[in-house]
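REVIEWER CHECKLIST
Item 1: Sequence provided? yes
Item 2: Single chain? yes
Item 3: Sequence as submitted:
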Amino acid sequence: MAFDVSLGQYYESKSLIHRLDPRTKLFFIIMFMVSTFVAKDVYSFAFLLGILLVSIIVSRVPIRVILKGLKGLAVIIVFTAILNIFWTKGEGEPLVDWEVIPNFWTLKIYVNGLINAGILAVRIIMLLTATTLFLSYTTTPIELTDGIETALSPLKKIKLPVHEFSMLMTIALRFIPTLTEETGKIMNAQKARGADFSSGGLIKKAKALVPIIIPLFVSSFRRADELATAMECRCYRGGEGRTRMKKLKFKVKDVFGLLFALVLLAGVILINIYAPGYEI
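Item 4: Structure as written out by the authors:
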């Protein structure tokens, strides 16, 4: 089984979004998340989707690269949507009324459940796409670390390890494609030795994953030890007294980026008030 996941990887380009300050991208992501949850109708969701598509075009990141990053999360998205179908109660007669266990559990599916499940899936896809686009594909790990650390720098006054926290988040994001690739190699090696991961019931498939999990854990600990050794060899001692080769500076395009993020949130609110459509 070959894994082709681009989540956590940097896509090199010279687009406008690539040249933005990482703090601007962080602020835009926060405003986009807030706008996604503030959106109440079809028009506001279409507005956000249009902004996201324009951002993808401006970033010059191919659609196929973004879809590869979402492919590994498809199971989670579908599972969340299905749960929302079963747990949402609506008005009127249900589309499906099935007594699974007599006098104990009745499964009912309403139209509202189907609509909410679809909207939830779209919301999750938009959030994941925007986050990976601005914080992964268009931002290097070093820029992301510096941006998070600078944005959280006021917390240093209360003795919080801001630098270590931002470094931890960046390393975790960067190692997603590495560990995914390692998992694919281990599965191919096990298949070459006669392992079968597709046949059998759920319990058998779970047991078949044991020969994958153990080598993956060993490989992860080995990579972590190698990374720690490499950082020590480069005299890394945390954020105390650390200087940067490139200091972050806001430019004119960053000011426009911050204003655009505020306009995005304001646009969603105005659409909800003055141009209400089908509420969701």
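Item 5: Key structural point noted by reviewer: Residues 56 and 133 are 7 Å apart (CA to CA).
Item 6: Recommendation: ____
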